[in-house]
Write a structure and sequence with these properties.
Elements: H1 27-35, E1 38-42, H2 51-63, E2 67-71, H3 75-80, H4 84-96, E3 99-103, H5 104-111, H6 116-126, E4 132-136, E5 141-145, E6 149-154, H7 166-179, H8 184-199, H9 211-219, H10 227-234, E7 242-247, E8 253-255, E9 258-262, H11 263-279
Pfam families: PfkB
InterPro entries: PfkB_dom, Ribokinase-like
Domain Carbohydrate kinase PfkB: 81-204
């Protein structure tokens, strides 16, 4: 079974953003931002809104205490060489976001650093408010870098049907962990599971993974553990920061500055929280 999608907007046929006529935030939009815990934006917002509007939205979000999540996506590279206004808006996002989410290639294009951990640390250094930088490593897994440590989680092995919606699903899980102060390694494992479960289906929207599917995946996991890849990536960083690593079989504990946490421990701590949220109506089943 194959799924094929084509997304086309007005921006594909014009250099102007689709809603270039919008120049101020409406009171309705301001109320929505103020009521929200997180404002999530990605690079494609530049195809819809002017750079001025985007900066206005970020500034108002910061003013009212709502957190900013930003995923530059493939547009990040083109924005770096875009108009002066686009470059200014991109720089504003990178400085004012609480959480940045990007692939290893996108991190390299924004910083010039091949090592995704060094790239993330550079983004943290330049950010005024940045607390987390999450780097998506494709089939290898993902990394969450803070100023105090590095957290790594291998990806789940699944049969991929369609990757549409996986990135947004991953972000939603990261946001859940951020809002609820869930441990970083647990948040990362949950996000990997949500993204993987979504890839097992077809299409986005209402077709993204359900909580039931995510739980089933985490309870009977098959992690894509590539020890050689992770050892090479982390070797240069073990002396400078503590590293927390999600493992399937390794006993909980530390080895030097490497702290191993088993997936079983993560699942046992996370599932009660998820089921409680489901009962409260804050998660979809």
């Amino acid at each position: 079974m194959w799924c094929c999608f084509c997304f086309i907007s007005r921006a594909d046929f014009s250099k102007e953003p689709a809603f270039s006529w919008m120049n101020t935030l409406s009171e309705e939009v301001k109320r929505a931002i103020k009521r929200s815990r997180i404002l999530f934006c990605n690079g494609y917002d530049f195809d819809e809104l002017s750079s001025h509007m985007i900066i206005s939205a970020v500034e108002y979000t910061v003013e009212v205490g709502t957190s900013v999540f930003f995923d530059p996506g493939p547009r990040g590279k083109s924005l770096l060489s875009g108009t002066v206004e686009e470059q200014k808006a991109l720089e504003h996002f990178l400085r004012m976001s609480d959480v940045l989410l990007l692939t290893s290639d996108e991190a390299e294009s924004l910083t010039g650093l091949v090592d995704p951990i060094l790239a993330a640390q550079e983004l943290l250094r330049k950010g005024n408010r940045t607390k987390w930088v999450v780097v998506k490593m494709g089939p290898k897994g993902s990394i969450l870098i803070t100023k105090s440590g590095i957290t790594c989680a291998s990806a789940f092995k699944v049969k991929i049907m369609d990757t549409v919606g996986c990135g947004d699903s991953f972000v939603a899980a990261i946001a859940y962990g951020f809002i609820h102060n869930i441990p970083l390694v647990t948040t990362l494992a949950f996000a990997n599971a949500v993204g993987a479960a979504t890839a097992m289906g077809c299409g986005a929207g209402r077709n993204v993974a359900t909580l039931k599917q995510v739980v089933e995946l985490m309870e009977t996991p098959d992690l894509n553990e590539d020890d050689k890849f992770w050892n090479e990536l982390l070797r240069e960083h073990l002396d400078s920061q503590e590293v927390t690593f999600l493992s399937k079989m390794v006993l909980n504990g530390s080895n030097g500055r490497m702290k191993h946490v088993t997936l079983q421990k993560v699942v046992s701590e996370l599932l009660p929280k998820l089921k409680s949220s489901q009962l409260e109506g804050t998660l979809s089943s």
